[in-house]
Amino acid sequence: MHTLTRRVTALLAALVAVSGLALFGISTAVAAHPAGGQKPTIVLVHGAFADGASWNPVVERLQRRGFSVVAVANPLRGVRSDAEALDARLATIDGPVVLVGHSYGGAVITNTKARSPKVKSLVYVAAFAPAEGEAAAQLAAKYPGSTLGETLAPVPLPDGSNDLYIKPSVFRQQFAADVPARQTALMAATQRPIRDAALNEASGTPAWASTPSWFLLAGADKNIPLRSQQFMADRAGSRATATIGGASHAVAVSRPDAVADLVLRAAG
């Protein structure tokens, strides 16, 4: 009987201790932000010719810093519909969010409901940041330097549009010149196509006009010329712009430390 009493007493003491932690705002379920408050969830949005796994090196670094990270599956079908799919995913996340877009993924985060207080900042990684009425293809061609068009292999779709792939034979030199050849062979084989209509779809009201933004520019990008990236960063009033000289379009794969560092600044 005495043993049972001691066990009940111990259980009650444990419950009181947990309650006390809750009263003082201490929780193991929600990470605390160094500056106070809840750490934001980092939501990563991939672009064309890639998938969520392209963020893996960045995810590892952010998780080591204690952040919750979600690398969403971007449908790559159209700017508006892709943004709606992202909004649906964001609706399931509690607390603040930092949105990160690579390449075409930048156009998607530009068109989400990021004006919601939930989204505290936007990070563009070698990405499109269109103004209202602009399309990704238009921005890629704004300044000389993009060689993407000549590397594409279209696959006709039943609706008359096309899925676009980068030809595997030129994938590395076009998309990921600073990534090891064995790795780029895998990336070429597993690339996800983008619908051509998505690259030509006009953007809506830009989230960057009302949400703080950070930009990482890839200095040797053959998809989006550096000058185009710089133009978009300047126009958006970027809080911080990091230029990585010699970095290919696949900068999240080749330079994950630089990408993670900028995301952490935006999350701070």
Overview of this protein structure:
The structure is a single chain. The chain is an alpha/beta fold and 268 residues long. It has a single domain, classed as Rossmann fold (3-Layer(aba) Sandwich), CATH 3.40.50.1820. Helices cover 38% and strands 18% of the residues. The protein contains 11 helices and 9 strands. The chain has helices spanning 2-23, 56-64, 79-90, 104-110, 136-140, 171-175, 181-190, 196-199, 226-236, 251-254, 256-267; strands at 41-45, 69-72, 97-103, 119-127, 152-156, 162-166, 194-195, 213-218, 240-244. It has a 6-stranded parallel β-sheet with strand order 2-1-3-4-8-9, sandwiched between helices. Strands 5-6-7 form a 3-stranded antiparallel β-sheet. Helix 2 (56-64) crosses helix 11 and helix 3 (79-90) crosses helix 4. The radius of gyration is 22 Å and the shape is globular. It starts with a helix and ends with a helix. 41% of the residues are buried. The model is unreliable at 1-35 (pLDDT under 50).
Q: What name goes with the CATH superfamily? A: Alpha/Beta hydrolase fold, catalytic domain
Q: Architecture in CATH?
A: 3-Layer(aba) Sandwich
The stretches of 5 or more residues where confidence is low (pLDDT under 50) are 1-35
How many H/I helices? Answer: 11
Strand-pairing-aware structural class: alpha/beta
- Overall geometry comes to globular
By DSSP, the count of extended strands is 9
β-sheet strand percentage: 15-25%
The top level CATH class name: Alpha Beta
Outline the fold blueprint:
Layout: H1 2-23, E1 41-45, H2 56-64, E2 69-72, H3 79-90, E3 97-103, H4 104-110, E4 119-127, H5 136-140, E5 152-156, E6 162-166, H6 171-175, H7 181-190, E7 194-195, H8 196-199, E8 213-218, H9 226-236, E9 240-244, H10 251-254, H11 256-267
Parallel strand pairs: 1-2, 1-3, 3-4, 4-8, 8-9
Antiparallel strand pairs: 5-6, 6-7
Helix pairs in contact: 2-11, 3-4
